[in-house]
Amino acid sequence: MADDNHPRVRLLCRPKQLNTKGSDPGVHFWLVGSPFLPPLTVASFLRCIHSLPSSSSPDFHKESEDLRTLLPKGFELIGAVASGEDSDARAAVDAARSLRKLLYREGMDRPLIGAVCGSDSGDLRFFVSESGNATSLEAVPSVIEERDSEKCLWENACLLRCELPIKLPVYYALKNPTDVEKAYVQAVEALIAKLRDPQAVYMLETTNKTSLDIPLPVIIRGVQLDFYADLSKIKTLAEDDDGSDASSLSCSYFSNRSKAGSPVFSAENADTIQVSVLFNSFGTSSASTVPFAEYFPVEEEARLLVVDIKLDVLCYSSRELPLKYAVSSLIIPGLVDQLNTVQKLMLPNLLAQLPQPKSYHFSPSGILHPITVFYELSFGETEMKQVEVRRSLHSRLGLPYDRPLLRISNALDFSKVKSNGMISLQKGSTLLRDVHFGIPSSGVTGGTVSLVQGSYEYFHYLHEGYNDSCSVFSEAGGVIVIGWDKGWGCAYRSLQTIISWFRLQNYTSIEVPSHREIQQTLVEIGDKDPSFIGSREWIGAIELSFVLDKLLGVTCKVINVRSGSELPEKCRELALHFENQNTPVMIVITCTRSFIEDKPNEHFFPFATKDCVSSKDKTSCKWDKCVLQSRPRKLGSNGGFMRLELELNNCELSSSIIWMEGKRKESEWIEQIGGGVLAYTLLGVDYNEASGDCAFLILDPHYTGSDDLKKIVNGGWCGWKKAVDNKGKNFFLHDKFYNLLLPQRPNMV
Question: Which Pfam families does the UniProt record give (predicted)?
Answer without folding.
Answer: Peptidase_C78, UfSP2_N
